[in-house]
Amino acid sequence: MGEDIYVVIAPDEDSRTVSFMSRESLLKWINDSDVKQDNNFLSCIPKEHDPQYWDENDILVIKGYIVVPKVVEKITKRTVE
Fold first, then answer.
1. Is 55 contained in some domain?
2. Cβ neighbours, 10 Å, residue 60
3. pLDDT of 1 strictly over 60
4. Is the dihedral angle over the CA atoms 31, 34, 38, 41 positive or is it negative?
């Protein structure tokens, strides 16, 4: 398993941005940036998955890691006449 990453969906002017951050980058962003006092960190994925319908102050942080599917079985079938 690789290094944990944090996917951050946050308001940015008239839209939302999706950022990928390390733990250190996330903490720096939260403590040293334009995260406002009135921003709301969501505790779950909203029922409305489309962020354009979220409250303008909502921020969603998802902790995870990158997954690369591996081939378990590969079947190749050929025929000739």
1. yes
2. 19
3. no
4. negative
* Closest among 28, 14, 33, 20 to 61, alpha carbons compared: 20
Q: Is residue 28 part of a domain?
A: yes
Residue % of the chain over a pLDDT of 90:
28
- What letter represents residue 81's amino acid? E
Number of domains in the chain: 1
**What tokens appear for 60 in the block?**
């969603």
Q: pLDDT tens digit string along 13-45?
A: 778 899 999 999 999 988 877 677 778 899 999
Question: What tokens were used for 81?
Answer: 């006449």
Instruction: Name the residue with tokens 């997954």.
Output: 67
